[in-house]
Design goal:
By secondary structure, the protein is an all-alpha fold. It contains nine helices and no strands. It folds into two domains: 61 residues, no CATH class; 187 residues, no CATH class. Helix 3 runs parallel beside helix 5 and helix 5 packs across helix 7. The relative contact order is 0.11. It is found in: Membrane. Its main location: membrane.
Length: 258
Amino acid sequence: MDGLVELNLVDLGWALGMMGICLLLSRWSNLALEGQLLLATGRSILQLLVVGYVIAVIFSLDNPLAVLGILAVMMTIATIVAKNRIDSRDQGLLPLVFGSLLISSCLTLGYAIALIIQPEQWYSPQYLIPLTGMVLGQAMNSASLAGERLSSTIKSHRLEIETHLCLGATPQQAITAYQKEAIRASLIPTLNQMMVVGLVSLPGMFTGQVLAGSEPLNAASYQILILFMIALANLITAQLVTEGIYRRFFGENLSLIS
């Protein structure tokens, strides 16, 4: 197979032209998205270039502390983003979201690294950094969807929940249907992707490996692994986040906190 065709600055300039077309289309259609498109374009270029240089340095160092350091930064950013999507004013959610993402990511990555990939070094940046990025990014979305759904549902169904409590139900029994609904909602994007993968969409992991010259079957195997890792991490994250959020709504006397 031919190797990957490297892109130079001229190629990236042509790629930038696509965003220029987006700007023109937004202006022509009066969508008023020009500012957001410019900001998104600038941030994409800056963030990816910075990440590229940082990861290149970490690869050259081949040091577990450097790898764990960048993973900690990724985890912190994911926690803040997910927490703000659930409730930007509630700072008490930070430990809950961080703990949920940490547990789900560690369990999923530990399983994959120890039992499946088995690299020579457990901290191999070639595997640990990209796998963490893919799993953590999806788990962050799952935490946001499940947490926001359950939080808003409890707030809008206070009367129903209080009625269940008055009839002798425990807090867990009173919100169990809402919790299950929130978890299911958070998994819809993951399940949709798994249902049509290879038929409608070709995920980034598969496409990237094929472009780099890997055998398509090997690329498909890695993509299967990634999808299963994402599904497990998302489910664990959603369960932990919703469990923690529902407990925050009830006081020591098992009544809803106003």
